[in-house]
TrEMBL record:
InterPro entries: Ankyrin_rpt (IPR002110), Ankyrin_rpt-contain_sf (IPR036770). This is Ankyrin. Keywords: ANK repeat, Repeat. PROSITE patterns: ANK_REP_REGION, ANK_REPEAT. The keyword Iron does not apply. Pfam families: Ank_2. The lineage of its organism: Eukaryota, Fungi, Dikarya, Basidiomycota, Agaricomycotina. It comes from the Eukaryota. SMART domains: ANK. Signal peptide: none annotated. ANK repeats lie at residues 21-50, 51-83.
Length: 110
């Protein structure tokens, strides 16, 4: 479905709705293939908006490790602030998710 929408001119960065945009929705739901497809077609990895603030924050909060890695590989800003959750680093702390916290931290300046 996503491929058909993109092929027919859908704006991969269109904002709106609960999650903010398509990338943020795919990231929080753990749809690695859709995240990659959207990024390959120009989705802004650091777009702000929606419930989780940005795609990295949504993926981190939901524990979607594979998606977090894809987003980091594509330049997601781990220090970006957004929504009520702060930044991606803060999302791993309440869960005591030290492995993911360490990986995200190595991609930040903190």
């Amino acid at each position: 479905v996503v491929t058909v929408l993109i092929e027919n001119g859908a704006d991969v960065n269109a904002q709106g709705g609960y999650f903010g945009n398509a990338l943020q929705g795919a990231a929080q739901s753990g749809s690695k293939a859709v995240v990659k497809l959207l990024l390959e077609n120009g989705a802004d990895v650091n777009a702000q908006g929606g419930k989780y603030g940005n795609a990295l924050q949504g993926a981190a909060l939901r524990g979607n490790e594979a998606v977090v890695k894809v987003l980091l590989e594509n330049g997601a800003d781990v220090n970006a602030q957004g929504s009520q959750y702060g930044n991606a680093l803060k999302k791993f702390l309440p869960k005591n998710d030290t492995a993911n916290y360490a990986e995200v931290r190595t991609n930040s300046n903190q």
